Amino acid sequence: MGFSSKCFFVFTLFSLINVSICDPRATEAALICANRTAAQSDRQVYVESFLEAMDSITPLVGREKFGAVINGTGNNTVYAFGECMKDLSQTDCNLCFAQCKTQILRCLPFQRLVTGGRLYYDGCFLRYDYYRFFNESLSSVDRTICGNKSFAGNQSLFSDNVGKLVRDLEFGGLRNDGFLTAVVSSGNLSVYGLAQCWEFVNGSACRRCLSDAVLKIGSCAPKEEGRVLNTGCYVRYSTQRFFNNSATDTPPAGNGGGSNRLAVILATTLGISAFLLFVSAVSFFVRRKILKQKREKQQLGALIRTVNKSKLNISYETLEKAANYFNNSNKLGQGGSGSVYKGILPDGQVVAIKRLFFNTRQWVDHFFNEVNLISGIHHKNLVTLLGCSITGPESLLVYEYVPNHSLADYVFDTKNLQPLTWSQRYKIVLGTAEGLTYLHEESKLRIIHRDIKLSNVLLDEDFTAKIADFGLARLFPEDRSHISTAIAGTLGYMAPEYVVRGILTEKADVYSFGVLVVEVVCGKKNNYVFKNTNSLLQQLWNLYGMGKCNEAVDPLLEGNFNKEEASKLLQVGLVCVQASAELRPSMSSVVKMLSENHEIPQPTQPPFLNSGSSEFSPFNLHGKRFFGQPSSSTQSSGNKLTESWIEPR
Ligand SMILES: *[C@@H]1O[C@H](CO)[C@@H](O)[C@H](O)[C@H]1NC(C)=O
Ligand SMILES: *[C@@H]1O[C@H](CO)[C@@H](O)[C@H](O)[C@H]1NC(C)=O
Ligand SMILES: *[C@@H]1O[C@H](CO)[C@@H](O)[C@H](O)[C@H]1NC(C)=O
Ligand SMILES: *[C@@H]1O[C@H](CO)[C@@H](O)[C@H](O)[C@H]1NC(C)=O
Ligand SMILES: *[C@@H]1O[C@H](CO)[C@@H](O)[C@H](O)[C@H]1NC(C)=O
Ligand SMILES: *[C@@H]1O[C@H](CO)[C@@H](O)[C@H](O)[C@H]1NC(C)=O
Ligand SMILES: *[C@@H]1O[C@H](CO)[C@@H](O)[C@H](O)[C@H]1NC(C)=O
Ligand SMILES: *[C@@H]1O[C@H](CO)[C@@H](O)[C@H](O)[C@H]1NC(C)=O
Ligand SMILES: *[C@@H]1O[C@H](CO)[C@@H](O)[C@H](O)[C@H]1NC(C)=O
């Protein structure tokens, strides 16, 4: 084998390695949540700003591999910054970032909204905070994370190499794109390193950040792995080649510069034994790659079969165009799981396109199965799922377009709409109950909606209620964070056993339905349970005790309502929001109560009512204290709340 053919051979192997080791590096290095929480009263607004920021940062990262956005106003402003490692391909960057976005929600559990968080992945980084932090380089929460395995060979040699490597990184980092990878080899021992400053950290700040990181990472040797996660930069070394090498080598622009350099490295630092080791490593990677490809092919085959069978797949490009490239003017709404846009398909059909906040690629098979099952569900009171797309940077769901706004728009009068008449309200409540009965008891799947609220009940031309977003939770069984964001906005609708203990049965939907009934009849929002004792449910309970239930009916009706029906609806509402899940009726019995005059049981009291003297009444259930009494510090308003009221499970 002549020198140049040997080089060619090695070079070919090298490109194979590059491909095979290339992955989004979506492994978590650290999640750091800040120590500062949003005011309980601002919860909803804050979550909205946060989701807007995540929505608007995604296309930026999808284009340039970094992005910074500012969304919201006042105390609910969210600053967000995301960046991928510069050696990742754009596709890998998208994958890493999608994963990162879903996981940073762990800083926003529904119990308290933390107004800052940083998530370091090995392939990407995401931070959100309440102030403009984009050019910061160092802070007190910076972390050094060493591997837990010590290098087995000559440790002093290893430490020397790490030292040399990090010095290379420190000085190499001064390049103007703030990124460098390096390799130090001696004997059969190689150490690989990567350093990157975030985009808005300027030259001098980057230098400071890297010097600090290099100082700290040195302490990791002789561990095989070390990372420093600074505010403005990321440094990692490892005995594994973890980065995409081609980004650092001079591009092989026909003159073989890359292979020449490789040859020099080989000639000077690698002995024959190292070369053999290298070859065996290469064959290992190649085999792994082939296996992986085979597995992917199998998965893809199954996927294509499912798609063809279901005819549900619509290409991303088609949908993107249909929604006018997700222009803000096409936006219909924003929920915990994504934003919804109006779109017109090429055949003229008007649809609603939901742009999922969550990446579905990791569980593509499962996703398609579920979409298939859910698309088989048809009921006059459920929004029909028409299709989906998983090929683009984001996953999309396509629904039938329901023209007449959501129930929330009417009841909370956000859009100056004509108030609903009594008969419309009755019909909507009954339709919602029928839709839920179908989901719980009649469909093959037994779906618990989990997020029944006014904004998830849409109205068509003749004011038939259509429940939206059912089955969404089924699509993300592993993704608990989806659920907690959805929850963050809708705490007022949540059954106590679900909030506190995570117990989820159909009766949680029955509770939310009860709140919905009361809101529709009274024309008011049920305040978040902790906020004050004067919640809608409490007022109604008090009136019910005095036999004056009908005084709670929406004054906008000006008395134009059927008194008997009104008392019936309110009593059904109260029966559904009882503290004890066992006492709540099933949805099919609710339908019977509403449509066939079945007897309605006497309600017991809703879960949170109490004395009414203290501003925050403790949560009682069967005489037991349900929620800890918040300390007085939690009562101050603004962003200074620090207590966690409910311990995370
Ligand atoms: C949060 O802040 C308090 C006081 O400001 C401090 O004592 C505590 O250690 C901080 N906790 C974390 C995790 O930073
Ligand atoms: C969020 O911020 C970005 C830029 O900071 C902006 O382009 C986008 O329109 C904002 N989104 C909303 C809904 O305000
Ligand atoms: C960040 O930029 C702001 C101006 O936007 C400047 O006032 C501040 O000093 C900068 N901070 C750092 C750490 O570079
Ligand atoms: C090293 O850490 C990994 C995960 O971080 C863990 O699974 C493994 O058990 C640890 N090994 C030792 C020897 O502690
Ligand atoms: C190669 O590394 C192993 C440990 O990984 C060590 O035991 C061996 O002595 C090394 N061989 C040479 C030639 O340096
Ligand atoms: C370890 O490497 C150093 C060079 O850094 C060398 O002087 C020493 O002899 C080596 N020790 C062993 C046990 O191989
Ligand atoms: C970089 O940021 C620092 C503040 O951290 C500032 O003092 C310095 O002037 C900036 N340098 C340049 C070149 O913008
Ligand atoms: C490696 O990085 C280069 C330059 O950023 C990029 O063009 C290439 O697609 C990457 N290769 C892989 C397999 O990710
Ligand atoms: C923001 O929060 C502070 C307390 O942290 C409060 O004093 C201020 O009024 C709030 N501002 C707005 C606009 O809500």
Textual characterization of the structure:
The chain is an alpha+beta fold. The chain has 4 domains: 20-129, Killer Toxin P4, Chain A, CATH 3.30.430; 143-238, Killer Toxin P4, Chain A (2-Layer Sandwich); 310-400, Phosphorylase Kinase, domain 1 (2-Layer Sandwich); 407-632 and 640-646, Transferase(Phosphotransferase), domain 1. The protein has 18 helices and 19 strands. The chain has helices at 3-21, 43-64, 90-104, 155-172, 203-217, 257-269, 272-310, 316-322, 364-375, 407-411, 422-442, 472-475, 480-488, 496-501, 506-522, 536-545, 563-576, 587-595; strands at 28-33, 66-71, 78-84, 117-121, 124-129, 143-146, 179-186, 189-197, 225-229, 233-238, 331-335, 338-344, 350-356, 385-389, 396-400, 457-459, 465-467, 620-621, 624-625. The strands form 5 sheets. Strands 1-4-5-3-2 form a 5-stranded antiparallel beta sheet, with helices on one face. Strands 6-9-10-8-7 form a 5-stranded antiparallel beta sheet, with helices on one face. A hairpin with a 2-residue loop joins β4 (117-121) and β5. α2 (43-64) runs antiparallel to α3 and α11 runs antiparallel to α15. The longest helix is centred in the middle third of the chain and has 39 residues, at 272-310. The protein is elongated. The N and C termini lie far apart (64 Å). The model is unreliable at 1-22, 247-279 and 609-649 (pLDDT under 50). Residues 152-153, 187-188, 273 line the site of one 2-acetamido-2-deoxy-beta-D-glucopyranose. The site of one 2-acetamido-2-deoxy-beta-D-glucopyranose has 5 residues, from loops.
